[in-house]
Amino acid sequence: MSAAAKPTSESGAARAGGRTGQVIVASTRAATGVYTDRTGPVIDGWLREHGWLVLDRAVVTDGEPVGDALAAAIEAGLDLVITTGGTGVSPTDQTPEQTLPFLDRQLPGIMEELRRRGTSATPLAVLSRGYAGIARGRTVVINLPGSTGGVRDGLAVLGEVLDHLIDQVRGADHAAAPAADTGRAAPARAAPSRAAPATATPRNGILPKDLRHGH
Q1: pTM for the full model?
Q2: How far is CA 31 from the centre of its chain?
């Protein structure tokens, strides 16, 4: 599929408040027909299930074509672009290098959590070099791995933060945290005590010598 952005679900756009997203598959073998892309459809389906207006998936060869597809999606003003593939350490894995120049602000916590969850299945998850961040102050870009397991881990992380993230990028205020209700009345504040002025007490009816006559 080309990088040209074409909507595939108008009803999805309505449910998602007009939120638009696109998946970019970075895989030379998938782009040249050597094997069938398996991760792109997983991400597409997940986005539709969550009410997104999903644009035509772009399946491109590794390297500069990934950057070209990203540039087109960002120029179109999409809310979200998810790439899959090309995040490893082989010579052809260049998705992070193609992504980073577009990012105004990075979101490292997303990728840290993705890698953390991935290590429960394989220690090789720590080799993923993907980025997450915001381009042109509007488009959220997420690099997911090229494996179905890595994609599912990534979508699990996004499912917990994506709605709030998009709202914040669009300028929504933070939700006010409700005040804690302990069910107990606040303790009454005690009035400050004032010491009574000192008075001399006669001992056996006789004042001390230094207090006689006001001395």
Answers
A1: 0.75
A2: 30
Q: What is the pLDDT of residue 185?
A: 52
- 102 contacts 74 by C-beta, under 8 angstroms: yes
Computed on alpha carbons and rounded to an integer, the radius of gyration of the chain in Å comes to 32
- DSSP 3-state percent helix, strand, coil across the chain (nearest 5): 40, 15, 45
Those residues with Cβ within 8 angstroms of residue 179's Cβ, 6 or more apart along the chain or in another chain = none
Q: State pLDDT tens for residues 139-163.
A: 999 999 999 999 999 999 999 999 9
Say which residue, 74 or 201, is predicted with more confidence. Answer: 74
- CA nearest to 106, candidates 147, 67, 140: 140
Q: Encoding tokens for residue 108?
A: 């490292």
Q: What angle do CA 65, 69, 75 make, to 5 degrees?
A: 140
Q: 129 in helix, strand or coil?
A: coil
Report which secondary-structure segment, H or E, holds 117.
helix 108-118
How far, in Å, CA of 78 to CA of 72, rounded?
A: 9
Phi-psi region of 205 (alpha: psi -120 to 50; beta: other; left: phi over 0): left
Give the number of other Cβ atoms within 10 Å of residue 183's Cβ: 4
- As assigned by CATH, the class of the 10-169 domain is alpha beta
- Give me the count of residues in the chain: 215
